[in-house]
Structures are given as structure tokens and as C-alpha cells.
Amino acid sequence: MTVTVIGAGLAGCEAAWQLAERGFEVRLVEMKPTKMTPAHHSADFAELVCSNSLRGDRLENAVGLLKEELRRLKSLILTCAEANRVEAGGALAVDRYGFSGMVTEKIRSHPKITVVEEEVTKIPEAPVIIATGPLTSDAMSAAIQDYFGGQKYMSFFDAAAPLITFESIDMEKAWFASRYDRGDADYVNCSMEKDEYIAFVEALKTAEEAPVHGFEDKHVFEGCMPVEVMARRGEDTLRYGPMKPVGLKDPKTGKEPYAVVQLRKDNALGSVYNLVGFQTHLKFPEQKRVFSMIPALHDAEFVRYGVMHRNTFLDSPRLLDRYYADRRNPLVAFAGQMTGVEGYVESTASGYLAAVSMAAKLQGTPVPDFPKQTAIGALAQYISDTSIGSFQPMNINFGIMDPLGYKVKGKANKNLAIAERSLAIIDQMLREHTI
Q: At the N or C end, where does the chain have fewer CB atoms within 10 A?
């Protein structure tokens, strides 16, 4: 039997791989490179259009737990991410081109996967998993709306940070370190004095923005808030956000600076760095002008400016079940950010669960039951929770997982106990061959 997967992003590639590994013929349809979006730059699959970080890697962090669940479940995306890891302290960051290239090679070389390069403009016959992402083409968006009887998408705006060359950083005014000296010194830290910071914030507040159709500050997803929007929220907002100096001591003074801009390696060679948390939709000349006010970046060479794009997602609680499937047809499923999961790892998890659930339905075996004690299950149950009134995209967090039911002293210890409980459930499911 052949299963169609539409979209070769993180969710689509994970879904295609899991189905193929379970013996299904997979027809993976991707519109790149025939048709590109403004946010895409490569013909490779699983392209990381924003940050190159898959975020925290510690079990006390919910996304760290989600990654460990996926590792144990033999996720293609996590395997390729680990193979292309670049230093990023306690986070899992990757060489974006090496990562996408490896995913592409593994998908194209799998004997059960056939790649078709074309734009899909209508929903194919089941079984199908639709993972066309937050930048779904206009024609496919219309087809999905028609499929759901005219059900409108909701949408938000997402932004990417600029990339600069390492050799253009003035290291006389910056230093390598990780916050609180956790892990290796993987970040370049660019300090700012109070007067420099205040002038920088004022410049951000008044800088000219690129026109984005329908953009309003209130529609920006909090996890990808542009720096200029944060600047308008108050003078100290950035100092409590991406420019937080806590835990970073300047080796020249032995003191914490007034504010710090952190740069993270974006490729394995270390020749390109990104401005962490500096998503923006300023016009390109304004980005050059304002970000060059950061003392260590006065001569920064930009290899990619920040961009902003509209992301669309479904009203999933009304449309999808806990397996990411259409409530009316269990053999039509959706995956990725269009379902309302937010983040690379979350998108991967949705692709995994949509695929293994689809495989079980087609094989006539019990559908895997990932409870809310697991990160994978909690995320799926969040997007399908009909009690949610105003549905918004969600990163994985411990708040949507079942509580322990007993007290544990200290937040980190409590989170670790939740993680250990989750992984014990995953291990048991693996032993009992229920996934």
C-alpha cells in the first residue's frame, strides 16, 4: 500500500521515514525546487528557515525531554541533527546545510520512498499526511480550506535572525563563554554599556520596518518576537530577554555588562554566526545600520538579513484528533506547524506520531497510546483539546503534561522527575512493541 506525504519539511520527512521503515511505499511530494517561498533558500529537504538551534538539550527542559523521546524512538530528524551538531552550550544546534543535506540524502536513497517534485493543489485520496508547513502555497491553502468546508485558518507572523561572518566580529570587544559556564564556551558575547544600550533601543524603536501584509505586533508569536517589537515594549525588555547579561562575566572586567548580545555558531566550520533572539523585519539597510551599533559588530558582514513571513495554522482542536488525523477521516492526517505545534522538534514529533498512528490503522493493529505523561502525547492532546477556546500555537512545556501527583522540592528536580516518568513510559512501550 502507498501512503502519500505532502511536504518535505521536518514533519513530512519524519513522517515519510517512519512509514517507509514500517514497510509502506511512500510517495513524498515536495514543490521545491519547482516552486520556492520567500523564506526558503535551498532545494534540500528539512530546511531550517529560522534559527539553526533545536533549543535546550537538558532533561529539565521540556524540549530536551521531547528530543530524548524522539531519539529513543529512532527519529530520522534527531539522528541527522546529532550527526551535524555544532557547539551551543546546553542547546542542540546544527550546521543547517549539513543537516538538511543529510536528511535529503537519507530520504532520497530510501528504497521505499519515491520523491515527486511538484506543487499539490488539492487533497489527494487517503491515506495521506499533509505537512506543507506554515508557508503552504496559496493554492494548497485554498484546497485545505475547501476540504474543511471553508474553515478559515488562523495565522501569526514568524521572523528569522540575521547571520554574520565570524571574521567580521571585533573580538577585542567580545569574548567566548556560555551562560553560568555551563558546557563549553560556545557563544560569542558582545557587551554593551548602559549608554550604548539605550541608544541601541531608541534606534530599534524608530528604525524603518519592511512592509509585511497584515502585520500587527499583537499577531506575532511570542517565541519569535522581533527585537524592534520588544524594544517598543519598554526600555528594559531586551535586557530581560535576548540581551540578558545574567550569568555572563566580561573577562576584562570580571563583571556582568549592562547588556549582552549573544552570537551562536551557524555552521560546522564556525565561519557564520547568528544573532541569538534577534528575529527582525526591519528593512535590510536599517538592519545594517542599527545592528552595527553593537560595539563588537561595528563592521559586521551580513550573509543573510533577518526576514519575516506569515505562518498559518489550523483551528486544530475543532478539526483534528490526538493522532493529528481529521476527526471525520482517520486516514487523512496533518503534521507540522500547520497543526499549531510550534518549533522544529515539536513539528518532528507531530510527523512521527501522525505516521506511526497511520501505519497502525493501515495494519489493523492498536494505535500507539502516548499519554499526557509523555511530551509527545501531551503536545498531541493539546492541539486536539476541544475545551480550548482561542487556540494558539504552542511549544512543548511541562505545563501541558500531567503533573506528578506528589511534591518534589525545586523546579529543576520536579521537571527531571517528570522527564524520568515519561522516558520510563517510552521504554515500556518499546519493550512491549506498542510503537
A: N
Which grid cell is 378? Answer: 501531551
Q: Work out the percent of the chain whose per-residue pLDDT is above 70.
A: 94
pLDDT tens digit string along 377-410? Answer: 999 999 999 988 778 788 899 989 998 989 999 9
pLDDT bucket at 219, cuts 50 / 70 / 90: low
Residue type (1 letter), 7: G
Q: What does the block give as the cell for 224?
A: 519569535
169, 294 Cβ separation under 8 angstroms: no
- Please report, as a single letter, which amino acid is at residue 305: Y
- Going by the DSSP 8-state scheme, the letter that residue 320 receives in this structure is B
Q: Are 417 and 404 in contact (CB under 8 A)?
A: yes
143: left (phi over 0), alpha (psi -120 to 50) or beta: alpha
Rg (CA), the chain: 22
Identify whether the C-beta of residue 63 lies closer than 8 Å to the C-beta of residue 51. Answer: no
Residue 23 pLDDT more than 80? yes
pLDDT (tens digit, 9 = 90+) per residue, 185-201?
Answer: 889 999 999 999 999 99
Helices 76-83 and 62-72: crossing angle in degrees, nearest 10, is 110
pLDDT confidence of residue 306? 87
For residue 17, which amino acid is it?
Answer: W
**137: pLDDT confidence band, cut at 50, 70 and 90?**
confident
The pLDDT of residue 182 is 74
Burial class (CB in 10 A: 0-12, 13-18, 19+), 154: middle
DSSP 234: -
Q: Which residues 6+ apart lie within 8 Å of 320 measured at CB?
A: 314, 326, 327, 333, 334, 339, 383, 384
DSSP 181: G
Tell me which residue of 215, 366, 235 sits closest to 225, measured CA to CA.
215
Q: Any bridge partners for residue 265, and if so which?
A: 273
- Asked if the peptide bond before residue 33 counts as cis, ω within 30 degrees of 0, the response is yes
